[in-house]
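Figure 3 (text version): structure tokens given as input.
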């Protein structure tokens, strides 16, 4: 029985899909004005695990993740670069796709872009104006009238008056209330613009997600997600827009991932304390980066540090050592490992526990490797099968274990090992030690186990 923590009710709830066997999920996507940082990656990797697990459990999942391809940050970047905003959008959309592919993030079923949805957005704004949830302000912009939506603040768990006193005091005399937010913004000269009943302009950020999710997934769907910074105001505003426009409940479960932090602070573009996914991928194999992102629980914060990546690398090395040199086989069926893995994942996608079960399984493989190689191969196949649910452990063991060793002369290493073995047979310990040291100088570490010498690269 799958339970998911719902930010709306602040508790784990038994997941019951609206349509049996089917899950509709929407995750707010990136704003494409720059490269994505590993904090963004953490959120999308968390939801990638959710999608993979739901599919593995047999649900027919429709996953929509938008691209915000028009907003102030994009316009500012285009102006800075003296480029058309569409050039900026294409560059970073392509870059983000490359980075997400490298991290093994499955492509969403739908990847709508705000600029493709302008007609839907306009229709939704017209509905909101008609039913008195939105108004045209004196300056011509259209605003959502927050005071008209009684449940406002429910997701943030804040009273509207408290929210209001916390709202930034802006010099904006056209709003009826400081919490009101823009639905349609008139274009300043030179800005990108689309025609609307209110003049040439562009949609506000919040309305795009309401319009796109409505068109792709319907008035009422199962899961809506994002990083927890989106709870307020973005998701609160999405609820206000969608429910006021359709008069129906918008979403059953709200899921929010915790922050990737650096020195205990949220990694963010605005603080400048970020590392882009592509820079980190130059330093570490993609699977190490992914493992780092998903090995903590998705709601907990995760700390960025070199040590964390090294721990991820050594954890994966342990798994790949267990998988090493075992032939393909069918996964061992009906094991307690698989049962416990499901129990962990059913408990709000508890990846740390699920991974600890995979560690137990890999120890078991090491134990049966010599005594029962056939069993070891079936256990290894199970480890790969469960690893795939988390999007890990699909590589060739030796490829992972020897990654970064491409510059090494393997033939030379192997002939040195053979020479050392001969020296050992001859009881020429001084020569054997000399060869070990020569290899160590190349960062090649030897391991002698049951008459067999293997090596690994340890930089
Ligand atoms: P943005 O492109 O800024 O809208 O962010 C895209 C996604 O990344 C959103 O779901 C954010 O909540 C999420 N996000 C941004 N910074 C972090 C962070 N430091 N840790 C986890 N998620 C983040
Ligand atoms: Zn959104």
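Below: residues designed for each position.
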């Amino acid at each position: 029985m799958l339970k998911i923590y719902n930010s709306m009710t602040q508790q784990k709830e038994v997941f019951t899909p609206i349509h049996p066997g089917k899950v509709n999920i929407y995750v707010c996507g990136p704003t494409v004005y720059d490269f994505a940082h590993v904090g963004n990656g953490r959120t999308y990797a968390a939801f990638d695990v959710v999608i993979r697990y739901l599919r593995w459990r047999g649900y027919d999942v429709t996953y929509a993740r938008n691209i915000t391809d028009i907003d102030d940050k994009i316009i500012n970047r285009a102006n800075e670069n003296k480029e058309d905003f569409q050039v900026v959008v294409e560059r970073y959309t392509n870059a983000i796709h490359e980075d997400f592919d490298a991290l093994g993030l499955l492509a969403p079923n739908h990847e709508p872009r705000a600029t493709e949805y302008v007609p839907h957005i306009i229709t939704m704004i017209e509905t909101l104006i008609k039913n008195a949830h939105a108004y045209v302000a004196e300056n011509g912009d259209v605003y959502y009238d927050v005071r008209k939506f009684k449940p406002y603040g429910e997701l943030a768990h804040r009273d509207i008056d408290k929210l209001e006193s916390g709202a930034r005091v802006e010099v904006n005399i056209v709003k009826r209330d400081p919490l009101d937010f823009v639905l349609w913004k008139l274009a300043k000269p030179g800005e990108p613009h689309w025609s609307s009943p209110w003049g040439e302009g562009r949609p506000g950020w919040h309305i795009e997600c309401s319009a796109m999710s409505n068109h792709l997934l319907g008035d009422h769907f199962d899961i809506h997600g994002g990083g927890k910074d989106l709870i307020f105001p973005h998701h609160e505003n999405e609820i206000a827009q969608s429910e006021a426009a359709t008069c129906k409940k918008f979403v059953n479960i709200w899921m929010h991932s915790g922050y990737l932090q650096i020195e205990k602070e949220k990694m963010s573009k605005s603080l400048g304390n970020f590392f882009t996914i592509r820079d980190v991928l130059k330093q570490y194999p993609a699977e190490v980066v992914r493992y780092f992102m998903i090995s903590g629980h998705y709601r907990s914060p995760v700390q960025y540090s070199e040590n964390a990546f090294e721990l991820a690398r050594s954890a994966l090395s342990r798994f790949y050592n267990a998988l090493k040199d075992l032939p393909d086989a069918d996964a061992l069926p009906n094991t307690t490992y698989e049962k416990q893995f499901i129990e962990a994942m059913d408990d709000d996608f508890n990846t740390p526990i699920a991974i600890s079960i995979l560690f137990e399984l890999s120890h078991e493989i090491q134990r049966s490797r010599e005594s029962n190689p056939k069993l070891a191969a079936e256990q290894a196949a199970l480890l790969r099968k469960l690893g795939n649910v988390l999007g890990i452990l699909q590589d060739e063991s030796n490829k992972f274990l020897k990654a970064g060793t491409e510059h090494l002369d393997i033939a030379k290493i192997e002939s040195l090992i053979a020479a050392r073995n001969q020296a050992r047979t001859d009881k020429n310990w001084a020569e054997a030690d000399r060869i070990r040291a020569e290899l160590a100088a190349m960062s090649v570490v030897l391991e002698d186990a049951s008459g067999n010498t293997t090596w690994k690269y340890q930089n």
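The first helix runs from residue 38 to 56.
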